[in-house]
Input
Amino acid sequence: KKTYYHRMVRKFRRLKRRFLKFFNLPQLQSIFIGPSDDCNADCIHCYEKFNKKAKVSLTTENIKDIIDQFKKLGGDFVNYCSGEFLLREDALELIRYASIQHMHVSVTSNGLLADEAKIIELKKAGLTKLVISIDSADEARHDELRGVKGCFQKATNALRIERSTVSIQKYGHMFQKRTLMNYKVFLN
Output
């Protein structure tokens, strides 16, 4: 049943894109929403921490309005990123909001909060893709880059949970060039 549903949604999306293109109507397929720069890591490479003066977060209503506008433009893939989205109290609500509108929903995370219970909650809310950032295949280097001791273990554990539970339809990882050389670490 779930497979049939997803096939129908994909067919509908293709049809919608053709319709919008035929009538020369504007369309966006995906959007990246960075609702806040709040984070539980202190990454040395993070661009969010350099602008401490402008501590601005989008409200739940702001984000829902953005999603509604995006939907009208033909959008069907919402990516929550920037800061640590899972710190938001409304994270599940926002995932659910986009999912109810038959959108794919992705979250980029450092993995610190992505334990088994959280991943199951995310799946139930409608998350279709969880991206866990890995900065180095070397545990000490990863933790140094993230500014949090134990971050590597939590991030790689989140990757294992993703694969071992059938909780998320797709999963992704962010690798940097130096990480790819040692990718086998993540396949165990």
Notes: DSSP finds seven helices and five strands in the chain.
